[in-house]
Amino acid sequence: MIRALVLKELRETIGFASIALAVSLAIVNGLMGRTLLPSIDVLPQRIHVVPFAGGVFVAYLSYVVIPLAIALGYRQATRELGNGVYLFLFHRPIARSTLILTKLGVGIAVMLVVQAIPILLFGWWAATPGNHPSPFEWSMTRGAWQFMLFSPIVYAGAFLTGLRPGRWIGTRLLPLAASGLYFGVVMMVPDQWWLRIPVAAVFYGLLAVDIRAIASERDYG
């Protein structure tokens, strides 16, 4: 049952993931100095600073990842609300909390893969001799990996926003607003990974508990 649910979620999220990955790879291609569409100035040009330094790469990546997190989280939470699929799924031989957590797991996995591929590709390019005159160590990618690990906070906030009953102008948007604010503050704080990671773990835990509670208590009729 879980395998079938995972495959279902992958089928329903592959469109978002494919678009986000394609745009991310186009951005990386531009930062490498290669141009797919010379007549379009929207994509970044070859990077002239040390790769991964100064937050340039992460800034470009965020233009793709944040919209993906919001769209993916909201879509996964609300897709089954309008057509009554939740009622069908909840009568399957699987716990309600397991069903919701499986959806979350698939969404987070999709987000991580979409980000890991361009990070690894740009890192490989920067580490290859002759591609860039600046020195490069893989440790310089730490900021990008931290961004990748913390960005699902926005996804979870969007998922909880979609799952919660209520008016849009009321409390329903609070999880997304709180998650976005927290994510922004964390990424602007100086590089204190030893503090970021445990605080992020607590925030992830609170979101998971709230999502599980809402999923268990909501009337889906």
Molecular structure report:
Residues 37-42 have low confidence and may be disordered. The radius of gyration is 19 Å and the shape is globular. It contains 8 helices and no strands. The protein is mainly alpha-helical. The chain has one domain (2-217). The protein has helices at residues 2-31, 56-83, 85-89, 96-127, 142-150, 152-163, 174-188, 193-217. The chain crosses the membrane at residues 12-32, 52-74, 100-124, 144-161, 173-189, 195-215. This is ABC-2 family transporter protein. Keywords: Membrane, Transmembrane, Transmembrane helix.
Most strands sheet: none
Q: Indicate the radius of gyration in whole angstroms.
A: 19 Å
Spell the H/E element sequence: HHHHHHHH
Strand content: under 5%
On the 0-100 scale, what is the average pLDDT? 81
- From the helix content, strand content and strand pairing, which structural class follows? mainly alpha
Count of beta strands: 0
Shape: globular
Low-pLDDT windows of residues: 37-42
Protein name: ABC-2 family transporter protein
Keywords: Membrane, Transmembrane, Transmembrane helix
Transmembrane segments: 12-32, 52-74, 100-124, 144-161, 173-189, 195-215
Index terms:
transmembrane; about 220 residues; 8 helices; mainly alpha; ABC-2 family transporter protein; membrane; transmembrane helix
Please sum up the structure shown.
This protein is mainly alpha-helical and 221 residues long. It is built from eight helices and no strands.
